[in-house]
Amino acid sequence: MCSVGYISFCRNTRKIVLKVWICAYIMLMMTCDGADISCPSECTCLTTFSQEEENSLRVECMRGDMKSIPVDFLDHKAEIVIISAPLGRPNYLTIGPIFTQPTPFVNLRELHIVNSNVPSIGQYSFWGLQNLRLVNLTHNNLTSIGADNFRGLINLTELHLDFNNIEQMPSETFRHLTALKILNLAHNQISALVPRLFRMLAKLFFLDLSYNPLTDLNPEVFKDIQHLRIFKCRRCLLRRVNTQIYHLVPHLDELDLGENQFKYLTSDEFISLKKLKKLKLDGNQLSVIVDNMFGRNRELRTLSLARNRLALLAPAALTNLTSLVHLDISHNKIDRFHLQTFAPVVDSLKTINFSGNNLPLNEIAIVLQILPEIHDVGLANLSLIDIPLNFFTYNEHLIALDISWNKISTFPYKLLTKTKFLQRLDISRNRLHTLNEQDLQRLEAIANVDLSRNHWRCDQCSADIMLVYMTTTVLNVTIRQLKCHSPLRLHGVYFGDLTLDGLELCSTTHEAQMSVIAGLMLLCVAILAAVTTALCCSRRRAAQYYTNEEKRRGHEHEHPEELLGRTDLGSVATIHAPVHLVTKGS
Ligand SMILES: *[C@@H]1O[C@H](CO)[C@@H](O)[C@H](O)[C@H]1NC(C)=O
Ligand SMILES: *[C@@H]1O[C@H](CO)[C@@H](O)[C@H](O)[C@H]1NC(C)=O
Ligand SMILES: *[C@@H]1O[C@H](CO)[C@@H](O)[C@H](O)[C@H]1NC(C)=O
Ligand SMILES: *[C@@H]1O[C@H](CO)[C@@H](O)[C@H](O)[C@H]1NC(C)=O
Ligand SMILES: *[C@@H]1O[C@H](CO)[C@@H](O)[C@H](O)[C@H]1NC(C)=O
Ligand SMILES: *[C@@H]1O[C@H](CO)[C@@H](O)[C@H](O)[C@H]1NC(C)=O
Ligand SMILES: *[C@@H]1O[C@H](CO)[C@@H](O)[C@H](O)[C@H]1NC(C)=O
Question: Which residues cross the membrane (predicted)?
């Protein structure tokens, strides 16, 4: 046994690292000692010490391939029992009243039996385990459950039955679990909720029914769980929700209805959910968010509308959302905005995701300009070739930027010199082929960078500085994982496996010669063109002025609301700049 001196050291020493090591050692010693506790050979048993609680015994049997629970060898004082198996080596177990007879595990607080192909629970299996707070039976093969399975679990607060094959649950299945707060039934085969299913679950605050073929939610069952705070029914095949349900659970603060089949929502859909803070509607088939949709959800902080078919957010779609922090409208069909839409959220919004829409950059620039608090912007999958260098002028708090899955071929160095606080940058899956010293220096100051899947060119003029930074700076891990795109000989080779000598000699490559020739030819054409235009222009200057002036006006009229009631058009002006330049230059 562990000496008293050691134990008091564990409790009192302040040197955390030392404490962890020495106390872990003591625990091991105790396991091996076996003077006081018995431990089955296929398990590990640890006694942990903590300031607040008595020494508590934790048994873990995680090797897999078990055919029965070695209950005779388990110490009856165990507080936490974890029986699990690695993916390829599942257990095949049954649960009967093994923890209650002949001597009950009176101290048992948590029981996890996971990935063990348990086919059913058996009646009275947990009878008398008054201290049991958590039962975790995820990843088994339960097909039906009933009230008798859970008799005696008067103090159970968490029941996890996700990843099973449950089809059947009669009325009042959980009636003995009067203290239950968390019930997870996700990833089963539940196709209907029978009336009074959740009777006696008055304290339930978390219910997850996601990934069940439900198609419809019976409002009746929500009468018994009126204190629900978090409800998830992701991918439940729902087309609509009877809004009576929302009247029954007015305290709901998180609702996940993602990946269902909603085609429309009425403007009073969520009118009863006045406390709602998080709403996920991503992956549905919504085509419009109508005016005043969230008018009564004033506390909403997170709203995901990603992966729908939205072409439009109505001008008053976000009315009253003055607490909204995160907005995800990515992967829709949005091609323009009404500026008024964003007026309610200008002071609160910190995250916005525009990725994967049909949005031109100027539409996005106009919105960003009125969102000075924004921290996190998603601009992936927008076919961007380039980003104007004053794009984030009004967003000085930018911390995270995702510009992955675009067609950017030059590192946006100048743009990024203006985003001083940037800490996360994803520029993966673009067409970058090299980084120069300046670029690399900027990247060094960004904690989290993803540069993968670009068109990295592994020849001596393009990759040499990158290799230097790989061996000498904090970018080492980031660069090491990149793969060469060209030349063909090095395609797919990791930078980590390259040496400076192994690189292609750039000046003599065929590709380089060709590009020099092409460049010279272009230059000749350009000079010729310039001379010709100069000659023509000097004669027709006046006429051309009028033509261009008309063109410019036409362009502005494409987006009338951009110009209405706006005084600050700084970045709009720059984005339209090419048009103005033509006018001035001629
Ligand atoms: C259930 O047990 C598995 C395996 O030990 C674990 O990974 C999972 O986090 C547990 N779930 C809960 C809610 O404790
Ligand atoms: C799971 O249960 C079903 C129905 O009882 C049965 O057909 C199937 O063989 C079981 N699977 C395993 C891996 O035990
Ligand atoms: C378990 O529940 C019973 C009855 O409600 C209560 O008397 C007892 O104190 C609870 N035990 C614990 C450890 O909370
Ligand atoms: C916005 O909130 C105010 C105050 O709660 C309320 O009077 C108004 O009706 C709400 N607007 C809408 C469109 O629901
Ligand atoms: C959109 O961007 C935000 C923040 O960058 C991110 O948390 C979220 O997962 C993204 N949404 C999708 C659907 O990728
Ligand atoms: C970009 O689009 C592709 C293809 O639709 C998708 O697989 C990927 O997740 C998207 N990436 C982001 C960051 O939106
Ligand atoms: C990479 O850089 C980090 C931070 O400078 C350093 O701690 C680590 O040792 C480096 N790794 C290699 C393989 O150079």
Answer: 516-537
